[in-house]
Amino acid sequence: MKIEATLDDKGHLQFARPLKLRHTRVRVLVTLPDDEIEEGEEEAATSEPEPHIPYNGPEAASDFIDELQSIQAPIRDVLQSAENTSLSKDEMRELRDQAWEEKHRG
Fold first, then answer.
1. Spatial CB neighbours of 15, under 8 Å, sequence gap ≥ 6
2. Cα(36)–Cα(33) distance, rounded to whole angstroms?
3. Which residues pair with residue 15 across a beta bridge?
4. CA-to-CA distance for 78 and 84, rounded, in angstroms?
5. Among residues 32, 45, 25, which one has the least CA distance to residue 4?
6. What is the pLDDT along the chain (106 residues), one digit of tens a residue?
């Protein structure tokens, strides 16, 4: 389908008439007048576009989650270890007082 649109200063396309698209992201081919392209930009405009990376479904999501969990595992182990205990109210108050002293008295 061919439709006229205007490219605004933020890079958004403003269609001449409203469209209801089936998907939120749609690949388009844009034809720009040569006199609207700054010199030196033609080379970048004619280079190969980045390939579209399709969504690979639940397998890709599962791989991502596995990778994320493997990254988080060492941190989780430290947080759940016996050495990582909560401070008492007195210890917290003392640390807060020390931080205040360092901040305000150097």
1. 3, 4, 5
2. 6
3. 5
4. 7
5. 32
6. 888 888 888 888 888 888 888 888 888 888 888 888 887 755 555 566 677 666 667 777 788 888 889 889 888 888 888 787 888 899 889 999 999 998 888 6
